[in-house]
Design brief:
Elements: H1 2-11, H2 13-31, H3 38-54, E1 66-69, E2 74-77, H4 78-97, H5 99-104, H6 109-126, H7 132-150, H8 158-187, H9 192-201, H10 205-223, H11 230-238, H12 241-247, H13 250-266, H14 272-292, H15 298-319, H16 322-353, H17 369-383, H18 389-402, H19 409-433, H20 448-466, H21 468-480
Antiparallel strand pairs: 1-2
Helix pairs in contact: 2-3, 2-6, 3-4, 3-6, 4-6, 4-13, 4-16, 4-21, 6-7, 6-13, 7-8, 8-10, 8-11, 10-13, 11-15, 12-16, 14-15, 14-19, 15-16, 15-18, 15-19, 16-17, 16-18, 16-20, 16-21, 17-19, 17-20, 18-20
């Protein structure tokens, strides 16, 4: 019993707090009156805040900077703690964005946040597991929670589109298990260290490459990477705004958190993975950007935005060095604030006038200038333009790829040109807000939560660019102890 308590205190404290609040939320869903639905949000915020605070009390072994728990099934180090902080920080903002959603579903408010907390739990477990069995259960638990959250939407085609997500999720899970069966047949191991030791002593490149590519499909699916990007736009269109914001944030963080750890095992023995990753990233940036500039619906634009941003981070991850990995971490940090800020602005607009096309934003600068300025800042940050953090993060990431050798330069140049296309997609929305046209659309200033998040994210997007050197040093520190 003492050993379990020590494991929890040393490596599993944030997850344990989330588990406690999941159980309490389940109990509350059975006994609380519907009129008390507002408590569900504050109860969830309390749990996430306590879990976030507990990450700063996790001890770090000064010798090897890693602490293992539950017979080595969970690892805690600076890298995993960094990702847990990102997940919990994002979850805090996403909980605030869910206010109007639970007002519509007040009889299921505690159920909604129970599933949401389960998604947070599985995402944190995903970045901390040390074997492929635990990874499969964690990543599939995250996928199941995403499917359940999609079903909370009330749009007419939500059920059909969420079922499509479920089918493609199941297909990618099947491919993962198929690849894992090959991997276990070759190595006789499912732990990360066991597979790494086998690779150091044996040479079975072809079959191992085939197995790992099959296993990668589940991550490419969650990131919206070609050829697993067909679900993104349709699923976002059928999802409610808070759920679409969740899908573009939490699964992306968890996927990159574990993907970097897997590449640490495989990439030195399977060099073809670098070419595969950078090719998929380049194709995703190109095709998703072309699709984005044709969109008129704001949700579909943001869906392709998620694919492009994920592909840019995959581009940096493909060269796999401490320099490039720290660039990915910094880019992800900047992406989280910019992305959630954009979703907060869109949600605030939709809750005010129930409109969701890009042309509906025409002339908004003359009615709500502060809202438009903050919205423009986070859009510019997503586009990667100065003076926001998006410019610094993209410059740092692209420079890391450029320093990795001439082999990657053609891919980088094509990706950079394709990324410019995506800038025009964001510019369509910005130009719409600054047009000199008559408009009777107004923003409801009494909707507090999205407005607070928008202004906070806009300010953070600027400050991260100003103090980029300090934040990059922190990201380099986390990347070094991967």
């Amino acid at each position: 019993m003492n050993e379990i308590i020590n494991d929890i205190l040393n490596a599993y404290l944030p997850e344990s707090i989330i588990i406690v609040f999941i159980i309490l939320s389940l109990i509350a869903s059975l006994f609380f009156n519907t009129s008390l639905y507002k408590l569900s949000k504050w109860f969830t915020l309390l749990g996430i805040t306590l879990a976030l605070g507990s990450t700063f009390f996790l001890p770090i072994d000064q010798n090897d900077m890693e602490i293992f728990a539950f017979n080595g099934e969970i690892v805690s180090n600076i890298y995993t703690i960094f990702f847990k902080i990102l997940i919990l920080m994002s979850s805090f903002f996403l909980t605030l964005l869910s206010k109007n959603l639970i007002r519509e579903k007040r009889d299921r408010a505690f159920e909604f946040f129970t599933v949401f907390l389960c998604a947070v739990l599985f995402s944190m477990c995903t970045v901390s597991v040390t074997d492929f069995a635990g990874l499969f259960f964690s990543i599939e638990g995250l996928g199941l929670c995403s499917y359940l959250l999609l079903n909370f939407s009330k749009t007419p085609n939500a059920k059909q589109l969420s079922f499509g997500y479920f089918v493609q999720e199941g297909t990618s899970a099947f491919l993962f298990l198929f690849g894992l069966s090959y991997l276990y047949g070759l190595c006789g191991q499912i732990s990360f260290n066991g597979v790494s030791d086998y690779l150091a002593q044996n040479n079975s490149v072809v079959l191992l490459t085939f197995a790992f590519i099959l296993m990668l499909c589940i991550f490419l699916f969650k990131l919206g990477i070609v050829p697993f990007s067909s679900w993104v736009a349709d699923t976002f269109e059928g999802a409610s705004y808070p759920i679409a914001a969740y899908i573009s944030t939490i699964p992306v963080i968890a996927s990159f958190g574990i993907l970097a750890r897997l590449l640490l095992i495989f990439i030195n023995y399977l060099p073809v993975l670098k070419i595969l990753f950078i090719t998929l990233a380049m194709l995703t940036i190109f095709f998703s950007s072309l699709c984005a500039i044709r969109q008129t619906a704001i949700k579909r634009l943001m869906a392709y935005s998620m694919s492009v941003q994920s592909a840019i981070m995959l581009l940096g991850l493909s060269v796999f060095s401490v320099f490039s990995l720290s660039g990915v971490l910094f880019y992800m940090l900047c992406y989280i604030f910019a992305n959630i800020g954009v979703w907060a602005a869109i949600l605030l607009f939709y809750d005010s006038c129930k409109k969701e096309n890009i042309d509906d934003f025409n002339g908004l600068i003359f009615h709500r200038p502060y809202y438009v300025i903050a919205f423009t800042i986070v859009l510019i940050a997503l586009a990667g333009l100065a003076p926001t953090s998006g410019f610094v993060s993209k410059l740092y990431l692209f420079s890391a790829v450029a320093r990795s050798g001439f082999l990657f330069l053609p891919f980088l140049i094509i990706s950079m040109l394709a990324a410019v296309i995506m800038i025009f997609a964001y510019w369509k929305l910005i130009r719409s807000m600054f047009r000199r046209v008559d408009s009777n659309v107004s923003i409801d200033t009494h909707i507090v939560s999205p407005k607070f998040i928008l202004y906070a994210c806009a300010l953070t997007s600027v400050l991260l660019g100003i103090f980029a050197d300090k934040i990059i040093q922190l990201c380099q520190f986390a990347a070094y102890y991967l």
